[in-house]
Amino acid sequence: MRLEIQCQNRLGLAQEVLNVLVSYQLDLRGIEVVPSLSRMYVSFPTVNFEKFQELMAKIRRISGVEDVKTTAFMPSEREHNELSTLLRTLPDGLIAIDVKANVTVINDAALEALSVERDAIAGQSLHGMVRGFNFQRWLEGDDVLAQTRRLEVQGKRFVADILPVMVPDDTGEEILAGAVINLKSESRLGQHMVAFKKGDQESFNTLQAHSNLMRKVVREAKKMSQLDAPILIMGETGTGKELLARACHAASSRSAKPFLALSCASLPDNVAESELFGYGANAFAGSAEGKKGIFEQANGGTVFLDEVGEMSHQLQTKLIRFLQDGSFRRVADENEVKVDVRVICTTQKDLPGMVQENKFREDLFYRLNVLTLALPALRERKQDVIPLAEFFIARFSVRLGRKAPKLTDSCASFLQSYPWPGNVRQLENALYRAITLLDGYELDREHLQLPSYNNDFGYLEQDFDGTLDEAVKRFEANLLRKLFPAYPSSRQLAKKLGLSHTAVANKLRDYGINRKSVKI
């Protein structure tokens, strides 16, 4: 039986409780005192009900005892059971060793990694079983510090966190008592990275939406993700259009099916067509079998078309047909294929303007422009800059295995005032470079190494030398060199620039610009 006694902190109280147990000839199995909780716990053999009632009454009459009740566990038993369960269920190997590198505790995952039985390794040294680290030499060193090493066990490779165990002595000084080794296999590390990256890419929770503009976008995207109509995401480069598309897919009923992407700007027309729709048998020389395109491979899921404004008219026509009923024909194939796919497109171009200029099909624009999301530029959502920066700093610090640095006030102010022409991608890249090269634990403005930028003039020269007249001449010379191949005579160039023939001829001579110096 176990009792929990709520009591005052009084000298001799524990002795009086023990005297009661002795009076009933009960063998004490354990006693624990938790002063911070004003609790005492005792364990003894089970007694009959009548004797138990008498015992409880006598303990309650002891001066300083406020309450007595039975309990299922002593504190140490609860802690032992929790640790035992944790060790048993952990998928990673865990080994505890003493100062001689002998095994004191080992869980099932570590036993499997070492390919040994518990009885065969308990009390045995790890020397000879694990390659890649000398535990004995490390434990005998003057300064025993935590290590992360790659080890080899039974021909299998692991990453191990090797952590010293320090125990305070009577004076409070910490002494080395051994170490704990946490083994992670290659497959487990791979699972961690997949989960980490998936969590980054496929969740609305990772979208930093503190500004009103982004909150509105996320709110609308969550509603649109539940529908099946095409989504058109518009925004400048680097604003996170694909990240939003993946979040829409992950939040939809199609999340268990594939999410496949194609950049319409990076492939020639014929390649893009075969990638999207596939091709039939013998469509190409040496191709005896057909190939499924992205639409077939993503059946039931989502197809992401990046920069749909770059799509050729031929592909636009075929995409219209597909959006009508989900059917299409492979390249060089007569058979109809029908699939169930949702299409999400992105663009940074002015599609309505392209429609007016006959560069984009009007009927395709209206089919894609059913559900539209406009991602704001980072300069339009200042409230999101610092949360985004802190998110990237934390993520990169974990990847680099270092403590996350703190943003200084001047750096935070600079981040919010910078116009970010490259948007979130530029912020991410700038912070990754800064954290990689950072030596201390504070991230300041100069660590970012960002060029000066003006919305009217673009990137500005940071190290400007000379006078205004010299700067004007440099600009003039550069402009003339760029125009000269298209207007390779002083008369043509003078007409283009609205200057006299003599003035242009003199400038070309002064700057050494001619048919020999400039390739035409």
Neighbour order of strands in the largest sheet: 6-5-10-9-8-7
Based on the structure, what is the oligomeric state of the protein chains?
Answer: single chain
Supply the helix-strand structural class: alpha/beta
pLDDT under 50 segments (min length 5)? 456-460
Rg calculated over all Cα atoms: 36 Å
Percent of residues in beta strands? 15-25%
Q: Can you tell me about this structure?
A:
- By secondary structure, the protein is an alpha/beta fold.
- It is 40% helix and 20% strand.
- It is built from 20 helices and 21 strands.
- It has a six-stranded antiparallel β-sheet with strand order 6-5-10-9-8-7. Strands 12-13-16-11-17 form a five-stranded parallel β-sheet, with helices on both faces.
- A hairpin with a 5-residue loop joins β5 and β6 (103-106).
- Keywords: Activator, Aromatic hydrocarbons catabolism, ATP-binding, Cytoplasm, DNA-binding, Nucleotide-binding, Repressor, Transcription, Transcription regulation.
- Its main location: cytoplasm.
- Residues 2-73 form the ACT domain.
List the helices and strands and how they pair.
Blueprint: E1 2-7, H1 13-23, E2 30-34, E3 39-43, H2 49-60, E4 65-70, H3 75-89, E5 93-97, E6 103-106, H4 108-114, H5 118-121, E7 130-131, H6 135-139, E8 147-153, E9 156-168, E10 174-185, H7 186-201, H8 212-224, E11 231-234, H9 241-250, E12 259-263, H10 269-277, H11 294-297, E13 302-306, H12 313-325, E14 327-329, E15 336-338, E16 342-347, H13 351-356, H14 362-368, E17 371-374, H15 385-400, E18 406-407, H16 409-417, H17 423-437, E19 442-443, E20 453-454, E21 458-459, H18 468-483, H19 490-497, H20 501-511
Helix pairs in contact: 15-17, 19-20
